[in-house]
């Protein structure tokens, strides 16, 4: 209840200052209650907040949760404003390079796409570099 109330207040303030606010899917963590790990849970949380919130889809979080990121796209098509891009092995949110990001970006259709990786070399592994540049 406190989380819902806090999100509602944040959404009201964001609307008053005309700043878009998105709720992100989170990976499950032992001992921590999360309400956005699946498309159904995220939808229920958004409905409970009952405010104008967008969605941030984190494809790495989806994988850790054991949910194909496409399920979030199917559920929230048109409401995903940000897509966080990184890879992992499904056991933890490792923020590894995601060379196949273009397919995801095209399928999600978010106006903003963010590489969430640890180093510039990780990003360079995803984005072709001009000759002579790293």
> How many H/I helices?
6
**Distance between the ends:** 48 Å
Number of strands: 4
The residue ranges in which pLDDT falls below 50 over 5 or more consecutive positions are none
Kindly state the percentage of residues in helix: 25-40%
What summary fits the major beta sheet?
4 strands, parallel
Proportion of beta-strand residues: 5-15%
Order of strands across the main sheet: 1-2-3-4
Give the averaged pLDDT, no decimals.
Answer: 94
Global shape: globular
What's the helix-strand series?
Answer: HEHEHHEHEH
- Structural class of the secondary structure composition? alpha/beta
Task: Provide a descriptive summary of the structure in words.
- The protein is an alpha/beta fold and 134 residues long.
- It has helices at residues 2-16, 39-49, 59-64, 69-76, 101-108, 120-124; strands spanning 22-24, 54-58, 80-85, 112-115.
- The protein starts with a helix and ends in a 10-residue tail after the last helix.
- The relative contact order is 0.14.
């Amino acid at each position: 209840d406190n989380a819902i109330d806090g999100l509602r207040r944040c959404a009201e303030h964001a609307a008053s200052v005309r700043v878009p606010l998105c709720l992100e899917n989170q990976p499950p963590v032992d001992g921590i209650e999360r309400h956005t790990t699946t498309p159904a849970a995220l939808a229920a949380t958004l409905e409970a907040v009952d405010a104008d919130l967008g969605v941030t889809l984190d494809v790495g979080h989806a994988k850790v949760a054991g949910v194909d990121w496409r399920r979030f796209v199917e559920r929230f098509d048109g409401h995903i404003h940000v897509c966080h891009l990184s890879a992992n092995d499904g056991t933890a949110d490792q923020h590894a390079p995601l060379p196949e990001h273009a397919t995801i970006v095209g399928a999600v259709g978010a106006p903003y796409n963010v590489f969430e990786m640890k180093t510039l070399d990780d990003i360079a592994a995803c984005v072709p570099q001009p000759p002579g540049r790293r």
